[in-house]
Design goal:
Blueprint: H1 18-31, E1 38-43, E2 54-59, E3 78-80, E4 84-88, E5 94-97, E6 104-109, E7 116-119, E8 128-129, H2 136-141, H3 145-149, H4 157-167, H5 176-179, H6 184-197, H7 203-222, E9 241-246, E10 254-259, E11 265-269, E12 274-278, E13 284-289, E14 318-323, E15 330-334, E16 339-343, E17 350-354, E18 361-366, E19 371-376, E20 381-386, E21 391-396, H8 402-409, H9 411-419, E22 440-445, E23 451-455, E24 460-464, E25 471-475, E26 481-486, E27 492-496, E28 501-506, E29 511-516, E30 530-533, E31 538-543, E32 548-553, E33 558-563, E34 575-576, E35 582-585, E36 600-605
Parallel strand pairs: 1-8
Antiparallel strand pairs: 1-5, 2-4, 2-6, 3-13, 4-9, 6-7, 9-36, 10-11, 11-12, 12-13, 14-15, 15-16, 16-17, 18-19, 19-20, 20-21, 22-23, 23-24, 24-25, 26-27, 27-28, 28-29, 30-31, 31-32, 32-33, 34-35, 35-36
Helix pairs in contact: 6-7
Signal peptide: 1-37
Protein name: Lyase
GO molecular function: electron transfer activity; heme binding
């Protein structure tokens, strides 16, 4: 992802070579520090230095890439995008920005000050002056979505939590598109569309919330000073570098990603059935379009879900990706089909593995025996594909009631009705605990070989013992466990989505340890996923509603926060390189909600 003039961006390397190569790459990074970096100093009108200013190097014009395939690059044809870069001023208000070999500009941004943009040729030896912002409406506009959504008060904390759980998993709540004034009827229509996309907002809330939202946003827009400030930007950001590579467009959804041992980052476009193969060392990328199989319908088995979406080419619904420890093949869960898709990064061939059970393959992981584990979100199951035996095994999770069992078994028929345009959601009562959709969600494999699952709507985690087939359910003392990962000790780290927390679970003792995210206002974020850097013993968390990514250091029990360059940067997956670089994608659905409508692959270098 570095363009000419950038310092080296380390790619992932094979695990057996990681220790030696990490040292070599660290030395190379020091040697490669650009001698021609452009020094920038930032001051306020009184001549005082302004620290923690985000200084973004951006292209004057986007790179010209192929759009011959319905607006996207032709499959298999390499592209070159311009890489954006951001650094933060230090206590002296100073920062060095590597130049680029394409026409570039800088944008300066810091909450409480007016944005400034200058062309590279306008930079000189004098300091750049940033003027404080005093207008209450403009100050509110600078704040991330969590600051806006923190003002929502339904006079019922439980109601607010359900709203955030069911209305915040596709896009932010409090972002510009979701905080504008609408009538109750407009909110009601939006909620009905959201229900078709997969929300399980209770029938009671569907009736009550439209009028509450209409009144609330009228109040806030009449008095924008009610919007509080977001999380302060810390001084340690002066050590960080953030790079972004634009991929896809406003009709894309860059859902999950995989950092492969070959050094490439693979990103799945959930709405356009395309896999992006990105070289993070150069910024070059190639798109591979997954071909539909004969008989596949647009929208797959959920054909009615996106019937009013302006443009999509999803037959598969790319969701999650995982790498085989044996041959490096990538397995992809296509949520709109009953299959797994295998991708060979060397030959670029796609292989389909059909299964006769399950519905909505979701998150996927490999175990040490080269078996593929995945959740089946809408059939309340965990699947396992044994590659050596070419065999699927399904593990049923327990139902909460007879009615839930019946509803889950009828799921394929229900989606057929939706595909035919029958508004069945209008006639089904949805309760506050989402009976009928327990939703097994995230999955990971602990060092002892067990598969652990987070079940979002039942406030439970579960384990599957592959040797015995035994399923064990564990009730969580928090709501909405979404995704989870294992650390090197076999502990599980779990996101508590509508609790604004992450949680450590120790299987050997059954103990839970809850940690509040360091977000301001407190409790206002919705962490979608996390990953564990087992080398550095750190947990990286998606700040999905706050345009940020968090890092928790397990040994020192300290937090760091890294703000993103674009407002409405909704991220839902994290990958970590052996060198300590972190990758996320801006994955809002729809992507046109992002500040400039452009989804990106984002690389964070903390030091």
């Amino acid at each position: 992802m570095n363009s000419p003039g950038d310092s080296t961006m380390h790619a992932r390397i094979p695990h057996h070579a990681a220790p030696l190569m990490a040292v070599c790459l660290a030395c190379a990074a020091l040697l490669a520090a650009p001698a021609s970096a452009v020094p920038i100093a930032v001051q306020d009108p009184d001549g005082k230095p302004v620290p923690t200013v985000m200084v973004s190097r951006q292209p004057v014009n986007m790179a010209a890439v192929d759009t011959s395939d319905n607006g996207y690059p032709a499959s298999g044809q390499q592209q070159q995008a311009y890489v954006e870069l951001a650094r933060f001023t230090d206590a002296r208000g100073q920062v060095d920005i590597p130049p680029a070999e394409f026409p570039w500009k800088i944008r300066l941004r810091k909450p409480g000050y007016k944005d400034r943009t200058l062309l590279a040729k306008e930079l000189g030896s004098t300091a750049v002056v940033m003027a404080p912002e005093h207008d209450p409406a403009a100050l509110a506009e600078q704040q991330p979505a969590n600051a806006w959504s923190s003002t929502i008060d339904f006079a019922n904390a439980t109601l607010k939590k359900e709203f955030m759980l069911q209305c915040n998993f596709c896009h932010q709540q409090g972002g510009p598109q979701l905080r504008r004034e609408r009538s109750a009827d407009e909110w009601r229509a939006a909620i009905q569309r959201m229900m078709r996309y997969g929300s399980r907002l209770s029938s009671q809330e569907q009736k009550e919330i439209p009028a509450l939202l209409e009144a609330h946003w009228k109040k806030i827009h009449a008095n924008p000073s009610l919007v509080p400030a977001g999380t302060p930007w810390g001084a340690s950001l002066a050590k960080a570098t953030i790079r972004e590579l634009p991929i896809g467009d406003s009709m894309s959804q860059m859902h999950d990603l995989l950092l492969h041992s070959n050094g490439m980052v693979y990103v799945g476009d959930n709405l356009q059935d395309r896999v992006y193969e990105v070289d993070p060392a150069t910024g070059r990328y190639t798109v591979y379009k997954i071909p539909p199989r004969p008989g596949d319908k647009l929208g797959g088995l959920l054909a009615g879900r996106l019937r009013d979406f302006p443009k999509h080419e999803t037959y598969q619904g790319i969701h999650s990706l995982a790498e085989s420890p044996k041959d490096g093949h990538i397995f992809i869960t296509p949520s709109y089909q009953r299959r797994l898709i295998e991708f060979d990064p060397k030959t670029k061939a796609f292989i389909y593995h059909d299964m006769d059970g399950g519905f909505y393959p979701h998150t996927v992981r490999f175990d040490a025996k080269n078996r593929v584990w995945f959740t089946l979100a809408l059939s309340n199951q965990v699947g396992m594909y044994d590659r050596a035996a070419d065999k699927f095994t399904f593990y049923d999770l327990p139902f909460r009631s007879l009615m839930e069992r019946i509803t889950v078994k009828l799921t394929p028929f229900i989606f057929k009705l939706l595909g035919w345009g029958i508004p069945i959601a209008n006639y089904v009562n949805v309760d506050h605990v989402s009976t009928g959709v327990p939703l097994p969600y995230g999955i990971d494999i602990t060092p002892d070989g067990k598969a652990w699952i987070a079940r979002l709507h039942t406030d439970e985690i579960a384990s599957v013992d592959p040797d015995t087939g035994k399923v064990t359910m564990v009730k969580t003392p928090f709501s909405a466990p979404r995704r989870l990962r294992s650390d090197r000790e076999g502990n599980l780290w779990i996101t508590a989505f509508n609790e604004s927390q992450i949680v450590r679970y120790t299987p050997s003792t059954g103990a839970f340890m809850r940690l509040d995210l360091p977000v301001v206002p407190k409790g206002s974020d919705t962490p979608y996923a996390l990953n564990v850097d087992r080398v550095r013993n750190q947990v990286w968390v998606n700040g999905t509603n706050s345009d940020s990514v968090y890092r928790y250091d397990i040994a020192t029990q300290t937090w760091s926060m890294f703000p993103m360059q674009r407002h409405v940067t909704f991220t839902r997956d994290v990958e970590i390189s052996p060198a300590g670089k972190v990758y996320v994608t801006s994955a809002s659905f729809p992507s046109w909600q992002i500040e400039d409508g452009q989804p990106t692959l984002i690389e964070i270098t903390p030091q």
